[in-house]
Specification:
Elements: H1 5-14, H2 20-27, H3 33-51, E1 56-68, E2 71-82, E3 87-95, H4 103-115, H5 117-122, E4 135-136, E5 144-145, H6 154-161, E6 163-170, E7 174-181, H7 185-192
Antiparallel strand pairs: 1-2, 1-7, 2-3, 4-5, 6-7
């Protein structure tokens, strides 16, 4: 199904938690307008729920490396604290397999993109020519952390966002990263260390 520019603008005004790019791309997968509108409505309500979650202020991502047919591949688990001082945990936050790219940054990016959409949604209008490598707007969509770019890219990205990024533990089969919002350091971080 092809949409006119006018129709895309109208739909973007109705479904405020779905980007114009998503509307254009997803419309191609549907033959009828009814099915497409049902899909966009569902996507909008899920994104609205994610975007209205409390903002994270402290994040821990742990990578456990397992050997399989692709060599060593990381599985990411994530623990984070929000502004309301509630802790959340996801044991299966991310995974990276295959060859030829940085699996560490891919697993961390998948975990962050999965659980930090509200944080990324809050910076969606912060477009600058000086944005660091590793943060993408994917053709006008909401921002995402890029995977496979190298874990060293995330330190400048986090600095640009006003956060601190540290690689605090590393063994042959384990890595741990912490990230925290500098504005909340006194409230949360001093209690943790």
């Amino acid at each position: 199904m092809e949409l006119s520019k006018k129709k895309v603008v109208e739909l973007a005004k109705v479904f405020t938690h779905v980007s114009r790019n998503t509307i254009i791309v997803d419309a191609r997968d549907y033959k009828t307008e009814r099915g497409f509108l049902k899909h966009i409505e569902s996507l909008n309500s899920e994104n609205e729920r994610l975007h209205n979650m409390p903002m994270p202020v402290y994040i821990e991502v742990e990578l456990n490396w397992h050997k399989n047919i692709y060599g060593w591949c990381p599985r990411a688990s994530m623990r984070w604290c929000d502004v309301e001082r509630k802790w959340h945990y996801d044991e299966k936050a991310g995974y990276a397999g295959g060859y030829g790219y940085d699996k560490t940054s891919a697993a961390v990016a998948e975990a962050l993109n999965k659980h930090c959409k509200n944080w990324l949604y809050s910076i969606r209008n912060r477009r600058t020519k000086n944005k660091p490598y590793g943060l993408s707007y994917y053709n006008g969509s909401f921002p995402i952390f890029e995977g496979g770019v190298g874990i060293s890219c995330y330190k400048p990205v986090m600095e640009w966002l006003g956060w601190k990024f540290k690689h605090v533990a590393s063994t042959e089969t384990y890595d741990k990263f912490i990230m925290f919002d500098k504005r909340y350091r006194k409230l949360f971080i001093d209690e943790l260390f």
